[in-house]
Amino acid sequence: MTNDMSEIANLKAGLIADIEAADTLEALEALRVGAMGKSGVITGLLKTLGPMSPEERMEKGPPIQDLRESVTAALAEKKGALEQAALDAKLASEKVDMTLPADHGAQGSVHPVSQVMDELAEIFADLGFSVATGPEIEDDWHNFTALNIPETHPARAMHDTFYFPDEEGQKKMLLRTHTSPVQIRTMMTQEPPIRIIAPGRVYRSDSDATHTPMFHQIEGLVIDKGITLGHLKWTLETFLKAFFEREDIILRLRPSYFPFTEPSVEVDVGYTLTNGQRVIGGDGDAPGGGWLEVLGSGMVNRRVIEACGLDPDEWQGFAFGTGVDRLAMLKYGMNDLRAFFDGDLRWLKHYGFSALDVPTLSGGVGA
Ligand code: PHE
Questions:
Q1: What angle do CA 245, 248, 251 make, to 5 degrees?
Q2: Band of the pLDDT at 251, cuts 50, 70, 90?
Q3: What's the pLDDT tens digit per position in 208-242?
Q4: Using an 8 Å Cβ cutoff, are 192 and 138 in contact?
Q5: Relative to the CA of 177, which ligand 1 atom is closest?
Q6: Spacing, Cα 32 to ligand 1 middle (Å)
Q7: How far is the CA of 220 from the centre of ligand 1 (A)?
Q8: Ligand 1 proximal residues by C-beta, below 6 Å
Q9: CA 173, CA 167: separation in Å to the nearest integer?
Q10: In the prediction, which pLDDT does 363 show?
């Protein structure tokens, strides 16, 4: 090892040239270790200063210190430059073009039944109804008896009920055949006035193009003072106009029979032929038109009001029930109910609604 002045100058020039030429942070680090590391050249030179006499050190020290400082400064400068270049490259490669359409990735869709349930909840919320729920595994009393359908009543046979096996000393349990037991549960737990809708799953042993063993209903119930059939008619008309988004919805009320309503009314809605297509709306008696049954309803039977512990001379009301799946079929044009529950992705893609872009009725009733 030499500390000859010109050799130090050469070493300095060589190291600085190497540092300037380094094109990666790794190469620069290798140079730093070679010069300033434990056994680096500059470290070696600095060590020679120790044993020198003060006079010799005065002479040979400054060029070595200068070499150390210059190389340290060159290393730091180059390191900064390389880091900046790496950052610039990263920023350039990661540049986001905000004008490109967003990539949504794989997306699911909202099932038409969920969509229609949301629409119904929205429409009835505007009319002051809240949503009530009840169990799908129901007892015989709530599903039938309290609704004025006693054990021997022929109406029990109308519902092809799924019963659970009988258990000693237990209530007879079943899968609810309609959403009407929610009427009972609501009247027994809420003080009137009552204004609820109860959407949910119901079960009947039945299967063809328009019947599945599980399907969806929505129940409506109003209990108040001085309620009449006129209130029922107005409510159903307002609801159907908002749901089908047409002003020319014409209803036909037909006398009917349900054990839990008296009088009972079946509600048909008129459809007309438009460009060879049946569309809901207009006078069903016009040529090519007709009537579709959409709802069962009536004034709540006083025996039901009594069974729930209320005084039927003080409180009256109306109730209605309809199939949610059926409403979806009528509004969105599907013709096979079974496909609703097959889980076929192609069907769901075709008939489903985007969760981000759902057509809503947010204008609300009368908008
Ligand atoms: N629960 C009846 C059915 O399932 C529908 C209905 C509800 C009728 C409320 C009148 C009143 O067919």
A1: 100
A2: very high
A3: 888 899 999 999 999 999 999 999 999 999 999 99
A4: no
A5: 4
A6: 87
A7: 9
A8: 178, 180, 219, 258, 261, 296-298, 319-321
A9: 9
A10: 43
Which ranges of the chain does DSSP label H, i.e. alpha helix?
Answer: 5-21, 25-36, 41-49, 54-93, 112-126, 140-143, 155-158, 181-189, 229-244, 302-307, 324-332, 345-351
105 Cβ contact partners less than 8 Å away, ≥ 6 residues apart: none
Average pLDDT for 264-280:
92
Which residue is associated with the tokens 């020198």?
52
User: Would you kindly state where each structural domain of the chain is located, as residue ranges?
Assistant: 5-91, 111-353
Residue type, 59: E
- Residue 297 CA to ligand 1 center (angstroms) comes to 6
- Quote the pTM value: 0.71
Torsion region of 277: left, alpha or beta (phi above 0 gives left; psi -120 to 50 gives alpha):
beta
Task: At 123, list the tokens.
Answer: 């429409």
Atom 4 (ligand 1) nearest CA: 178
Give me 185's structure tokens.
């549960």
pLDDT digits (tens, 9 = 90+) for 146-176: 999 988 877 777 778 999 998 888 899 999 9
Question: Which of 142, 149, 175, 178 to mutate for ligand 1's pocket (most ligand atoms within 8 Å of CB)?
Answer: 178
Read off the DSSP letter of residue 110. Answer: B
Choose the weakest-confidence range: 100-109, 177-186, 215-224, 250-259: 100-109
- Name residue 70's amino acid: S
- Integer-rounded Cα radius of gyration of the chain: 41
pLDDT, tens digit (0-9, with 9 covering 90-100), for 300-323: 999 999 999 999 999 999 999 999
User: Which two three-digit tokens encode residue 208?
Assistant: 């063809």
**CATH class of segment(s) 111-353:** alpha beta
Q: What angle do CA 188, 191, 194 make, to 5 degrees?
A: 95
Which DSSP string do the residues of 43-103 spell out, in sequence order? HHHHHHHTTS-HHHHHHHHHHHHHHHHHHHHHHHHHHHHHHHHHHHHHHHHT---TTSPP-
Closest-CA residue, ligand 1 atom 5, reads: 321
Report the distance separating Cα 333 and Cα 366, nearest Å: 24
